[in-house]
Amino acid sequence: MSLSELIRKEIQDYIFKQESADERDLVLKSKQILGIPSSLIAQQIAGRKKARHKLPLWHQTKGIIYPPSLNMEQSSSEATAKYKSSLILRGKMAADLTGGFGVDSFFLSKQFDTFFYIEPDEELLSVVKHNHQLLGAENIKYVNSTAEEFIRTTIAQFDLLFIDPSRRNKQQKVFKLADCVPNVVELMPALIGKSKNVLIKNSPLLDIQQGLKELNGAEEVIVLAVDNECKELLFLLKKQLTSSASVNAIDLDGKGNILNSFSFLIEDEKRTIAHFSSPLKWIYEPNASMLKAGAFKTVVVRYGISKLHPSTHLYTSEERIDFFPGRTFRVLEHLKMDKSIKDVFPNGYANILTRNYPLSVEEIKKKTGLKEGGELYLICTQSEKEKHVLLAERIDKE
């Protein structure tokens, strides 16, 4: 099926009108829709549904063609792609070595005079080229090649090389960069040799220290979260490696605006000695990007607060800390873990948080008779000295 068929006005009108339809029913009802296999129409409708929040620019543009669901799932969101484009100052030439659906390529290309999109799947490349042109990208060159072959044969020098390796086995979690395709560990000497900057994107499941060890260092590590959910782990490398990488925990909203950021040096985190305390008047829970980044002790010194326990990533203070990058709770009462807790919460509803506590949420609900919900919180945790059961309320940032 050619692109010219899918972008026909009547086909695009149908796809837009059927956005809320169950695409599986369309396939079951008919083999063809307007002369096109219903499975292809269903793929386009499913793609638009995924793009609605993830890729709003694509979603609102008629004529966009969507690839199979796997390519959509592996694609960066518009929010994270916009952020990545802000990391590098404007330059002459750059390349995305693992082009995919081309979201990162589109936004990164805005920072360079010439941009190369590299993709071994010829059909996917054609789709992305069509979409990019529809979205107004005019400086992208498309190369049907693997990352390894492109780097081996090019004689160009780049301001940025971007690479997003994928898992060899899609069913397994990634623990090493060397377990990905392309193998960026093997490619790294060639990448550094041909570019001022190398930006590697990986799953937030990857261990930061493991990644740094495999890469033999990095200028910067970025933990990128959207609405407090970790989405990407980025390694930025330059020709001259530094002895201690800076780590930036970044939390974006759905539009790519920075909500919170926290930066520190790994060496500083190792040297920092944290102060510990039992729960005081205020309790703080760092956001997801900070927890992944591992700023467990640095945050104590930065904000002048105390940690509850080496293995409890909750913090406390007597005076409230404004603009803490995470959730803030006011402790209202210290409780006992028994059936009487249920009477403290209106209608027996509580938001239950367990951090380094021997009972799970389900076990606490069973033990106390509490139901999940309401406005008040039950925080179950422990300090260095003892376990704590706290009645608390969440305080929004002012």
Describe the structure.
This protein is α/β, with parallel strands linked by helices. It folds into three domains: 3-66; 74-267, Rossmann fold (3-Layer(aba) Sandwich); 272-395. 33% of the residues lie in helices and 30% in strands. The chain has 17 helices and 20 strands. It has helices spanning 3-6, 9-17, 23-29, 38-54, 56-59, 69-74, 78-85, 103-108, 122-134, 147-153, 184-194, 208-215, 266-271, 288-293, 298-303, 341-344, 361-368; strands at 32-33, 36-37, 91-96, 112-118, 140-143, 160-163, 166-167, 180-181, 197-202, 220-226, 229-238, 246-252, 258-265, 282-286, 306-309, 312-317, 326-334, 349-355, 371-382, 387-395. The strands form four sheets. The chain has a nine-stranded mixed sheet, with helices on both faces. Strand 1 (32-33) and strand 2 form a beta hairpin. Helix 3 runs antiparallel to helix 4 (38-54). The protein is globular, with a radius of gyration of 25 Å. The mean pLDDT is 91.
